[in-house]
Write a structure and sequence with these properties.
Helix content is 20%, strand content 34%. The chain is of the alpha+beta class and 278 residues long. It has one domain: Metallo-beta-lactamase, Chain A, CATH 3.60.15.
Length: 278
């Protein structure tokens, strides 16, 4: 196993996390600054922290499922400031576990922020083509139909997801939906209107991929802390729903911006809950 790929058997599934990039970000929490600074001691004077971006592969039965897609092979086309560090990339990470692009059967895009969908396409012989040509790609309807800027000149969303739509590979999802046996998208708005998380029911054990339901582990203990620009009430409701499901299952969890590899679970703590590494 390489230094940027880590796999676990979770029940009947094999779950692999692939580190894509590390960047700096200032979350600007909707919380008293003195309190969030104590909870995030690595923040600099501007409030910036190092955040990893990870993607996940799930093998369960006949399904080979990608959960989010990272920055892709040419982020400079749309990003003014590139990540501080990049791994060899998603395709190389998949190759290290013996999975080729044509073997991916399903892709779930948790929401339409660049670092979650840009790996959807690859440039081949000067043409923009789907990176995973045999996969159905699922995204919340509000992420595609509700984005008024998606067709703007040079817009990243139209560039990447538009290519999927032209190839008949994009499927819009309303609410909750099982996309493959044992793999379900769960509507979890707040980060964005169509944000989704994924539950994997793998026999006696469960796994959840949370996308950007949380951005830092301190938000688990402080459920009402959210970065600026998010729908605080909707995000709180989505977090509470996840906890009500995952806590009694003692499910294994990952979210996108955990320090790689990031495996953990939610546990009871005093009158509330907290994040525990696992």
């Amino acid at each position: 196993m390489s230094s940027y790929v880590d796999s676990r058997a979770i029940g009947d599934a094999t779950v692999t996390v692939i580190w894509d990039a590390t960047d700096e970000w200032a979350p600007q929490m909707q919380a008293p600054e003195a309190e969030w600074r104590r909870a995030m001691p690595g923040a600099d004077a501007a409030g910036e922290l190092l955040f990893d971006t990870n993607v996940v592969h799930v093998a369960l039965g006949a399904a080979s499922v990608l959960l989010d897609l990272g920055h892709g092979d040419a982020p400079e086309r749309f990003m003014k400031e590139l990540p501080l560090r990049r791994s060899p990339g998603l395709l190389a990470g998949l190759a290290s576990i013996g999975v080729g692009p044509e073997q991916i059967t399903h892709v779930v895009i948790s929401h339409a922020h660049f670092d979650h969908f840009a790996g959807a396409t690859t440039e081949r012989a000067g043409r923009i083509e789907p990176s995973f040509p045999r996969a159905r790609h699922f995204v919340g309807r509000a992420e595609w139909e509700g984005d008024l800027d998606r067709d703007g000149e040079g817009a990243a969303l139209a560039h990447h997801l538009g290519a999927l739509e032209r190839h008949g590979l994009l499927e819009l999802v309303d609410g909750d939906r099982e996309i493959a046996p044992g793999v379900s998208m769960l509507h979890a708005p707040g980060e964005s209107p169509g944000h989704a998380i994924v539950r994997v029911d793998a026999g006696a054990e469960s796994f959840y991929y949370l996308g950007d339901l949380f951005h830092h582990t301190c938000e688990v203990e402080h459920l009402d802390w959210v970065p600026s620009g998010r729908d605080q009430a909707a995000l709180l409701a989505s977090r509470e729903r996840l906890i009500a499901e995952a806590l009694p299952r003692r499910a294994t969890l990952l979210f996108t911006h955990l320090d790689f590899p990031g495996w953990g679970r939610i546990a009871r703590h005093d009158a509330g809950v907290r994040w525990e590494r696992s």
